[in-house]
């Protein structure tokens, strides 16, 4: 029995299912979570399906989360989707259910769950949900509501199909979702829209980022600075890709200070592999999109990190503008 078949059998076995996704969510986190939940509701109306995690005001157009009590986890099948590492699961009660399944497209550096379905070649977990439906032999059924959420997830994680993780299979899956008459252009505009605060912070980043000798780039954003831009629920997530719009930049990092003084590292690349660097700092992720955390960021720590990032950029032999 394949892993997909095992997952489908577990879904059929349990009457109560709780689906989690990662903290600091993006469209794929909400899209894959909500899309899978809707697929199960549509396929098995008698089952009760909950979505765990904090709501994010900038993503409630995709789906909204449920308020859960501790008792709800008793006897439940729990599915953690789009969450590579256990500390990043939104709502840490994910391990309080009867059985745990992990579905993810990140490298499986933190192996957890009674069973896990990992596909690092998938563009997104939303793509994986469609694949699960297609392998279910009609036991799982898409509808328009699910298709809309899953499209949002795929479009979000592929940068509206601009990123290297977009494959021929990704486009075939997307075409399948289009059969449900979803309004893709409206969702694309929602993902492309930014607030005035994000626009101003973007300008600040472009004006103050630092470029290294070999076309790596970085910027440190202090908490008080970010707070002054009044970004609200959007936070700095829309800023992560800003530096990459500069043609000469091949890889980059945003250091974002939180209220607790710790720094979140948003590490991105146009070609050179950067997830091994993220692992050095307790993080991980995809080869071209990763993250990490640092408890402190002294001048020496910053200098050491930037030297490593610059060395990665120096090894890049892909197409660059000179």
UniProtKB/TrEMBL annotation:
Upper lineage: Bacteria, Bacillati, Bacillota, Bacilli, Lactobacillales
Coiled coil (residue ranges): none
Gene3D superfamilies tied to this protein: 3.10.310.30, inorganic pyrophosphatase (n-terminal core)
One matching Pfam family: DHHA1
InterPro entries (alphabetical): DDH_dom, DHH_sf, DHHA1_dom, Oligoribo/pAp-PDE_c-di-AMP_PDE
Domain DHHA1 residues, every copy: 233-314
GO molecular function, one term: nucleic acid binding
Segments traversing the membrane: none
SUPFAM superfamilies: DHH phosphoesterases
Identification of the protein by name: Phosphoesterase, DHH family protein
Source organism per UniProt: Ligilactobacillus araffinosus DSM 20653
Superkingdom to which the source organism belongs: Bacteria
Start and end residues of each DDH domain: 16-154
């Amino acid at each position: 029995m394949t892993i997909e078949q095992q997952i489908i059998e577990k879904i059929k076995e349990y009457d109560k299912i709780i689906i989690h996704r990662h903290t600091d969510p993006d469209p794929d986190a909400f899209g894959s979570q909500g899309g899978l939940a809707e697929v199960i509701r549509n396929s098995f109306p008698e089952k009760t399906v909950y979505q765990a995690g904090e709501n994010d005001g900038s993503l409630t157009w995709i789906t909204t989360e449920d308020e859960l009590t501790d008792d709800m986890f008793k006897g439940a099948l729990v599915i953690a989707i789009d969450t590579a590492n256990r500390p990043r699961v939104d709502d840490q009660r994910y391990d309080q259910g009867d059985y745990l399944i992990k579905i993810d497209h990140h490298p499986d550096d933190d192996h957890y769950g009674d069973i896990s379905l990992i596909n690092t070649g998938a563009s997104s977990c939303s793509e994986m949900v469609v694949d699960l439906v297609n392998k279910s032999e009609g036991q799982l059924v898409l509808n328009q509501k699910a298709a809309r959420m899953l499209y949002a997830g795929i479009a979000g994680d592929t940068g509206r199909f601009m990123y290297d993780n977009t494959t021929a299979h990704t486009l075939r899956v997307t075409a399948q979702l289009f059969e449900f008459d979803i309004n893709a252009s409206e969702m694309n505009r929602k993902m492309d829209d930014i607030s005035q605060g994000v626009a101003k912070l973007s300008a600040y980043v472009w004006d103050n980022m630092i470029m290294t000798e070999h076309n790596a780039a970085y910027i440190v954003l202090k908490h008080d600075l970010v707070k002054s831009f009044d970004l609200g629920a959007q936070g700095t997530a829309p800023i992560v890709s800003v530096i990459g719009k500069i043609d000469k930049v091949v890889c980059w990092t945003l250091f974002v200070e939180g209220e607790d003084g710790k720094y979140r590292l948003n590490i991105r690349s146009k070609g050179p592999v950067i997830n091994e660097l993220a692992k050095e700092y307790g993080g991980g992720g995809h080869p071209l999109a990763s993250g990490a955390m640092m408890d402190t960021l002294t001048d020496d720590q910053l200098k050491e990190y930037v030297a490593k990032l610059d060395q990665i950029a120096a090894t890049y032999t892909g197409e660059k503008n000179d």
